[in-house]
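Sequence of rRNA methylase (mine drainage metagenome).
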Amino acid sequence: IELCDSFIHIPANPEYPVYNLSHSVAVILYEMLHQSITKGVNRKTSSNNVSRLVDQIIKTMELTSYPGYKSRNTSVMLRRMFSRAELTDTEYHKMMGLFRYIIFNLDENSGE
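Predicted 3D structure, token representation.
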């Protein structure tokens, strides 16, 4: 269970609360498709957002004394990696929040 990326609960009839695996998969795929169509849940983030995220990561690297000569190659690698991953808007915002938090704490601790 520790290796799972997420847990899903499918409501069922209390008299027979068990689903066949194929039925469970069908219900999950239907819901994923329905949500992506109606809410745009899995909308891919823009290339501008990817650039902002990479800039945020590079800023974090600078604050942690990551060797400067490696930053350029790392920047290119991150842009390519995030483009291949087709980051969603939700994933972008979560990662930006994480790196903002790290930067805030690094800035705060550097003043001590």
